[in-house]
Amino acid sequence: MEAQQTKRILVTAALPYANGYLHLGHLAGAYLPADVYVRYQRLKQRDVKFICGSDEHGVPITITAEKEKTTPQAVVDYYHKANKEAFDRFGMQFDNYSRTSLPLHHETAKEFFLDFHKKGILKEKAEKQLYCEKDTMFLADRYVEGTCPNCKNPGARGDQCENCGNWLNQEDLIEPRCKVCGTTPVMRETKHWYFPLGDYQKQLEKYVEERNKRDGWKDNVLQYCRSWFKEGLQDRAVTRDLPWGVPVPIEGYPNKVLYVWFDAVLGYISSTKEWAQQQGNPDDWKRYWQQDDTKYVAFIGKDNVVFHCIVFPAMLMAKGGYVLPENVPANEFLNFEGQKFSKSRGWGIDLKDFLDEFPNADALRYAIAVNLPEYHDSDFYLKDYQARNNNELAAILGNFVNRTLTFVQKNFNNTVPQLHSLTDEDKRHLEYLKNVPQDIGEHYERYRFRDGLLAVMNVARAANKYFNDTAPWKSIKNDPERCQTTLHICLQTVRTLGLLVEPVLPGTAQKIWRLLNLSSLHSQQWDTAGEPELEAGHKLGESEILFSRIEDKDIDSLLERLAAESRKAEAPVKKDTAPIKPEIAIEDFMKVDLRTGKVTACEKVKKSKKLLKLSVDLGSEQRTVVGGIAEQYKPEDLVGKNVIIVANLKPAKLMGVESKGMVLAAIGEKDNPVLLMPEEAMPPGSTVR
Questions:
Q1: What element of type H or E holds 624?
Q2: Segments of the chain assigned to CATH 2.170.220.10
Q3: Contacts with 341 (C-beta within 8 Å, 6 or more apart), sequence order
Q4: DSSP 577
């Protein structure tokens, strides 16, 4: 990697959507890695600012407000406050945590739009959109429901069918209906502005490759960007018909707002502006956004890569005079107990609820940090959390600190003993301490936080080994000076650990500082963490246990409650079945050719969360059939299974894959498809009547 001359560092973390509570997956995706990085940079005494805030516009918020019979503002006010409090309890240390509903943000978003409009960058397009005459409004994508033209799912949205995974246009829906009142909307012409993302493709490709060469981007991020470039970037709508959001700041566009994708990323800039105003220097934000010697790092989850690596940089290029992200170290997803976090299934746990159960935020930070999904999805298990707390934090780190302080309190009047002549073992340990800050720092500089934390815990392991090998409980009796030297070095090691754990375990670092009776932890320098700076005779503080054990009963109780809540959420709910369709003659039914088939291969369809591509043996031929069942079935579980397909269905392309047929499924609770799979082995190609 090539070095960059940096005077200051700007760090942003993806703006959490103010439509629900933060859960552990959010923390692993963007927020904990960003906080660790920022805390490390602060200990390096670098000029770093950490910016975040709530994303408070968009259709899901208006739908939530309608369901709860309240206003969008009331929804975002509630979740902004709740999530900010949860972040505080978790130990997040933002320089500013703003919100996109503030006037300052609206002004910033309008400024960008007007600049693009004045330069002639934006393209105005007339298009047809569904309009509800009863509610007198154009219907945004999620305000429309209808039957999917591909899989005939009756609950498809105006932007996507959740059943088959296909992206849709509103006009594609069969029998569309307004989600607010249920009436049939009409098609009317409307106008919108588009940002020509494709015009910036060459610049973006060059930008991504240059930044990768300079700062080492993650492979998953690079491949994601390159796949978008390969497909070719398209125009993106900047405005939409919706009452909630940043109003379009030009005449002739009533009841239209800026698309949330456009205004949300600008929340980083408006939040930095708010910080500058709070510091009494309103123009100070420009140092971080408009000077080339700023290093800008954007922490996100993988679902936000396109917006932060392609869309936002293109907007900054179009505006001119802004720094672009030096790196976008996106993490993969964190699962919970082997399953995806799911609000609809009641599976997972919110941050606020977790901290109510286990108030020591550092134990949670540690358990997530050692299992960060840096390169692939990972899992959070409560039993693993318990084991990490008991067997590592308490038994290794906490044990060393406690045994050292207890021994000094008992044998040396709670003061730092004198340092006498050093043995080779002492010298090796002190040399090791001197080098570890740089080794750990190199991991953090390259966004390898798991490796950095492992190196920190290795210091605690080495400290316990040094304590055991030097056996001060023996030397206190037969060689007092040797014992003093051992404990002097052990206390220096406690101080080293106090600094090294601070990025991941800030609360624990403060406890260690109190135990050592030191002040101003944040005035310390990372590079001096391995130096023996405690002076002999220094009075230590009061004893304090760093980590308490977590008992089996507490974990088992929580697991039982979570399972019960999930079962309750998934319990069958009485609902009206779909109406019986009009009668058909037997001749019409006989036109449908149903055949048995055996699945010989199966894989996920690229860029789709819903679709699987099945290779089906029909006896006389092999067929490729695409079905929207990826969330219900794993590809490997379907290989060898018998299915029933519509063999004479006209071929259709789904996400670029030609499907020659349709697998039959029953629609279960929550519109989840359940494949019809005959248990008795029938020869492939058998007719179904």
A1: strand 622-627
A2: 123-194
A3: 23, 24, 25, 334, 335, 347, 348
A4: P
pLDDT per residue as tens digits for the range 167-219 = 677 888 899 998 878 899 999 999 999 999 999 999 999 999 999 999 999 99
How, if at all, do strands 239-241 and 256-258 pair?
Answer: antiparallel
- Report the C-alpha gap between 593 and 689 in whole angstroms: 9
Three-state SS for 547? coil
Burial (CB count <10 Å: 0-12, 13-18, 19+), residue 202: exposed
Select the highest-mean-pLDDT range: 160-164, 294-298, 615-619.
Answer: 294-298
CA angle (683 as vertex; 681, 685 as ends), nearest 5: 125
Architecture category of domain 123-194 in CATH: Beta Complex (2.170)
Report the CATH number of the 8-121+201-217+256-331 domain. 3.40.50.620
- 501, two tokens: 């754990």
Measured distance CA(438)–CA(452) in Å, rounded? 10
Contacts of 96 (CB under 8 A, 6+ apart): 49, 51, 52, 53, 271, 272, 274, 275, 278
- Cα dihedral across residues 589, 592, 593, 597: positive or negative: negative
Task: Please report the pLDDT score of residue 574 as a whole number.
Answer: 46
pTM comes to 0.81
For residue 493, which phi and psi values (nearest 5 degrees)? -70, -40
Check pLDDT > 60 for residue 79: yes
In degrees and rounded to multiples of 5, residue 255 shows phi and psi of 60, 25
Q: How many CA atoms lie within 13 A of 611 on its CB side?
A: 24
Instruction: Tell me the average pLDDT across 656-660.
Output: 87
As a whole number, mean pLDDT of residues 396-402 equals 98
Residue 346 clears pLDDT 80, i.e. is over it? no
Q: What is the pLDDT of residues 232-266, one digit of tens each?
A: 999 999 999 888 999 999 998 888 999 999 999 99
How far are the Cα atoms of 589, 614, 639, 655, 667 from residue 662, in angstroms, in the given order?
16, 10, 17, 15, 14
- DSSP 8-state class, residue 370: T
**Cβ-based neighbour number of residue 278 at 10 Å:** 11
pLDDT digits (tens, 9 = 90+) for 489-538: 999 999 999 999 999 999 999 999 999 999 888 889 999 999 999 999 99
How far, in Å, CA of 282 to CA of 272, rounded?
10
| All CATH 1.10.730.10 domain ranges in the chain, comma separated | 383-528
CA–CA separation, 663 and 679 (whole Å): 16
C-alpha 191: how far from chain center = 34
Checking if the pLDDT of 575 tops 70, the result is no
Q: Which residue has the higher pLDDT, 414 or 578?
A: 414
pLDDT band at 159 (very low <50, low <70, confident <90, very high): confident
Q: For residue 262, give the nearest of 244, 236, 283 by alpha carbon.
A: 236
> Could you tell me if residue 161 is left (phi over 0), alpha (psi between -120 and 50 degrees) or otherwise beta?
beta
Instruction: Give residue 155's pLDDT.
Output: 84
Distance CA 303, CA 276 (A): 30
pLDDT value at residue 165: 58
- The CATH architecture annotation of domain 383-528 reads Orthogonal Bundle (1.10)
One-letter amino acid for residue 569 of the chain? A
Residue ranges matching CATH 2.40.50.140 in the chain: 587-688
Instruction: Please give the CATH number for the structural domain made up of 587-688.
Output: 2.40.50.140
Q: Which of 413, 291, 276 is nearest to 9 (CA)?
A: 291
CB atoms under 10 Å from CB of 183, counted, come to 12
